[in-house]
Amino acid sequence: MEENNRRTWLSTEAVWPLLEKHQNTVFHTAKGLEFTYMIKGGEMFVDRRSKSITKATVEKAYEKIKEDNGQTIHGPKKLGVFGAPYIWAVFAGLKLVETGKGA
Length: 103
Prior knowledge:
Layout: E1 2-4, E2 7-9, H1 12-21, E3 27-28, E4 34-35, E5 37-40, E6 43-46, E7 53-54, H2 55-68, H3 84-93
Helix pairs in contact: 1-2
C-alpha cells in the first residue's frame, strides 16, 4: 500500500487481482443499475455491456484517481475512460474510492 496525503492506496498492480476475486458480485452504478462482471484474461465483461473493459483501462482509471487523491474526481464522469460508470461502481463497492454516501 502507498501513502498519499493520509489516504492509503493499493498498488495499481493489486487492483486487477482484487477485481478477479469479486467477479459475479452484484454492484450498482451511480444511477442504481445493478450489474455483475466476469474477468477473462485481461478483459472485464460487464453483463450490461456488449464490449469488454480492458485491464489497461481499469488501471488507467485507478491511476487517475490516485493522482487526483480525491480532490476533483468524485464520480465516474471525470474518469474519462470507456466503461467509467462500471469501473467507478466496482471501485466504490470495493472501497477503493470514497463516494461521500453515508458520510
